[in-house]
Specification:
single chain, 436 residues, mainly alpha, Serine Threonine Protein Phosphatase 5, Tetratricopeptide repeat, 0% strand, globular
Length: 436
Amino acid sequence: MAGAAGIVQRSTTQHAERSTRNAARSVVLVLLCGSLFVGGTARAGNDGPAEGQLSCASLRSMARIYMASGGYEKAQPFLQRALDLAQGQNDSDLEICACMLDLAYLYKSQGKLTEAERMCRSGLELQEKIYRENHPYVAYTLRILSEIYRGQARYQEAQSTLQRAIAIMQGARPDDDEQSAPFNVDMARLLVERGDLAGAQAYFDKAVSPIENSFGPEHLYTTKVLTSLAGLYVLQKRYADAERLTSRILPVQEEVYGPDHYLLVPVWLLISQIDQATGDLPSAKVLLDKSRKAVENQTDCGPLMKAEVLVRLGEFHLLSKDYARAGEVLQKVLNSLENTDGAPRHLAATALNDTARVCINQGRYTEAETLCHRALDILKTIFDEYHPSVADVLETQVQLHRQMGRTTEAAALEQQAQEIRARQHVAYTPMAKALP
């Protein structure tokens, strides 16, 4: 199996050989913008919008170009100006709604989830007045709201909101239609986070072919869907399948974003996980360092991506038995998430659990026990008792009790963890499981 270095070298060569890169980038960005915001941009038929509406539409179009390339900070002034203009000149509810929904998407992408929810709800209220509650445009807005809830770890609300959106689309389109497929992808991603990998696979199976046929195999949205599918394969230990997808994804995304853009980080992290699982630690470290550099001092990528990079890097140091560096990196994660709006609590729980593993290796057993309890407290507020992340913490406690000579407690917790693994049909645990 090829390592990260081979994939990166191969994709870089392909990148250099393409002579139409700039033109292709512009075309793909425009297409992506159109696909992201279709739910909030369509206009009712009339004799044509007023001049003020055209100005708002132009501002939003500029913002979407920036957002498609990850330039959320540059996009925000355009969208705020468009909304102020639309409200100030008493534009139609349709135009104000479009501005609100674009801002909601931007705030969501920046990790400003409280602002995103407020703006999305306001836009949704207007949209339901303009159309009807079961209009497909409403379904697209519910997709955004579901993603916001998912970012806030409000998984039950996220799933019920997305189920409503899917029901609307099923009433208007076939379930395997290309316009319904993105909703199935969102449900698959949500189920992965909730630990239902079999359910997630079923939704991906329905969605991938229509998306590839509709958007094309080299469209940015297609690559983002395949990135999520590759992530599921990694959790299922299907590393060859995951590598097959990342080998397709990386050259396409490099062609659009350039070779060092932070939006490549999700793919780099996947490849690093594959390399770690298959024993190619040097290649994994190269991509982890590259990911860290890409998100450092980057205001557009949001707290979730930065935290995930640091968690992966901390786990790498833990696997490499560099416990001091692992503890230092993981503490940065916890500090960064402490005051973050809509903090990704599942990542905080992961960082606490990994830090507990560091403490066990350093003989700091009391501290490790406290960290495990904190991690479990977080997980129990956002997942059920059978989530794989709960099993991760239980396995850490097993190691802790064994180190402290508590064999009875260790055996009981080990049985609980095994029951969770069997119930979820997943044997995967984070790489930081390695302990002496």
